[in-house]
Amino acid sequence: MKHLYWALPAALLLPACVTINIYFPAAAAEKAADRIIDDVWQLQDKKAAPTAPAGETPAVQPAP
User: Fold this and answer.
1) Contacts (Cβ under 8 Å, ≥6 apart) of 58
2) Span of the secretion signal (predicted)?
3) In contact, 51 and 57? CB cutoff 8 Å
C-alpha cells in the first residue's frame, strides 16, 4: 500500500516535466507581418483618396 502513495504522485508529476518546444521561422513571420501592414496602409490610402460624389460623372475633355 505504501508503494501506491509514491506511485500516484510520480505518475502525475512525470508528464509535467515534459516540455514541447515549437519554433516559428522568424523570417516567414516577419514577411507575413510586413504583408499585413502593407495591406492595412493600402486600405487607409483608399479611404483617404477623394472620390467623385455619387451621381456625378467626372468631366471628360475632348481629344485634340
Assistant:
1) 52
2) 1-28
3) no
